[in-house]
Amino acid sequence: MMHGNLIGGNWQETAQGFDNINPSDTRDIIGRYAASSPADAQAALAAARAAQKQWAASTPQMRFDILDRAAEEILARKAELGDLLAREEGKTLPEAIGEATRAGMIFKFFAGEALRPGGEMLPSVRANVSVEISREPVGVVAAITPWNFPLAIPAWKVAPALAYGNCVILKPAEIAPGCAWALADILHRAGLPAGVFNLLLGQGAILGPILAQQSDAISFTGSTGVGRDVCQTAAAAGTRVQLEMGGKNPLIVLDDADLDTAVECAVQGAFYSTGQRCTASSRLIVTPGIADRFAEALAKATRALRVGDARHPDTQIGPLASEAQMDKVRSYIEGAAAEEAELIAGKEPLHPDQPGHYLRPHLFDHCTAEMAICREEIFGPVASIERVADYEAAIEAANATSFGLASGICTTSLKYAADFKRRAEAGMTMVNLPTAGVDYHVPFGGRKASSYGPREQGSYAREFFTTVKTSYQFAG
Q1: Is 244 a catalytic residue?
Q2: Per annotation, catalytic residue among 278, 367, 374, 410
Q3: Could you state, in order of their start, the residue ranges of all structural domains in the chain?
Q4: Rounded Cα gap, residues 63 and 71, in angstroms
Q5: Do 271 and 361 meet the contact criterion of CB atoms below 8 Å apart?
Q6: What would be the CATH architecture of the domain defined by 2-245+450-474?
Q7: Which of 244, 377, 386, 456 is catalytic?
Q8: Is the pLDDT of residue 51 over 90?
Q9: pLDDT tens for residues 289-320?
Q10: CATH topology of domain 250-431
Q11: Residue 475 has pLDDT above 90, yes or no
């Protein structure tokens, strides 16, 4: 069976397809999924255009009801969807079920937002004139999503787009299409009119430029390089664009930090989800009074992490998502060794029971800011310890990056915590918490090369998915 595209309310197979492979056991083929052509993209755009006017005029209650029905089904099936997510992406089963739960809660939140469109009535500076400020949908929105959060990221793009009256074309990553297909099936059965939501499976290199040129708005999450290409294409066509790209997120550990808290923040932030998170804390910036104790304790905790099949109950670290990702991460590990970083965890060989993309978490000490593992996003279970002289050197090192998504600090000092939140050059800051781990009802996004355009999630999502209209009326 081929899992096809959803275009204009109908499931459609394609002439070509691709296999969805389980990274925990590469012998396991999860299913075959459609490989879309440019003609399929044009059909999805036409279907969305045809449905847009009617959907934009739909009542807030109708949009609430549909999104809430979808949310209820996602939450009711969170164990099943989590199992699929773990199987196709490699995230451990507890993390995968947690992501499914989060996707359901995102739909719940934006179902409520459909009933809270907002607006203002203001007096004019002129007599007998009133001013109304309202928000209207942008139109046809393309959402291009990555493989590392194959349920949550589609949810936080699709749900607000629909809530605010836009039609949507979702193009998920090729290596993890199953969750997006399941989400499309849920939305289709929740009662969306034909063409309001469309699923387009296949290669981003083929479909992305068409969507960027011909949609009214495009929301992209992925690598910085591809994001810049999307931005250039969209800008040339006059398409509204929102980008969430890479991160190289620091976690500062000061001398006064609670050691257990700091180690837990580092382990969770750097290695969970196999380090495949744009918010992962792969740079650990440590001051002298705690550096040796922190490095020793973190190395011990890192070596104790259990690597294995994502769906096995004892597994803490699943596989990397693909062979290409495994090769990329290994090249950074080899580069770190060549640059004479000291490997203090990760040397032990792995002996998996089945063929998969398994890699022990790697921790390097005595790293310097010039090393590639301290500058570039690795997107794998690799972390580096940089030793600095004091807090001032730590904040300077933390900000010395082209990225600016998340930044964290472990300290018991209110003074340093407050100063860090003010001076950290990042869109999100964490104090005594892992850099990876955010709420769905508040803004998500960064600065510099990490983000471009309005924030995602929470009520701030309306800034991208709606356009403002100012209306004047003479009442004399």
Answers
A1: yes
A2: 278
A3: 2-245+450-474, 250-431
A4: 12
A5: yes
A6: 3-Layer(aba) Sandwich (3.40)
A7: 244
A8: yes
A9: 999 999 999 999 999 999 999 999 999 999 99
A10: Aldehyde Dehydrogenase; Chain A, domain 2 (3.40.309)
A11: no
